[in-house]
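How a chain folds remains the central question behind the approach discussed here. This step matters because it turns folding into a mapping between discrete strings. The sequence in question and its structure tokens are set out directly beneath this paragraph.
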Amino acid sequence: MYAKDETKNTREEFWNEFKAWSGGKRVKAGKPGKWIMNDTGIKQIKLKFHFDDKIALAGIEIDTRNLDKRIDLWDKLEKTKTRLEEKLGSTLIWDMEYPLEVKKTVSRVYCRIENVSIYDRSNWKEVKEFFFSKMNSFEDFFLEYKDYFKYSN
């Protein structure tokens, strides 16, 4: 088992390495070096990466205490399901009630790979490529539909 400092350092090392690697690839592709992530322009919508000792996932998250707003945004997202899955090239996991470790629930649409661990460096290349490919597609989709999500019915 890893010591607390060692796990923290390993996680930081992965994310710093991914940030540098993906930033360079994004710039070469004519995109900003930095991912949108929390800077979507819509307070309740975030693009998310997650990598722990079991899975890696990339997706779109709706995070608000206002249940009506969450349902409204979820309905809009569901109406774009075909286009989003076409953009990602795969069937996604649609979870209206996704529990977080911090004892709160969000709505999340995502894709994942299992049986990978942030603590196993031999998984890093696969996860970095997965994140890069999938988040580029999520980001492109979001930018295409941003105005649709921004304005309520």
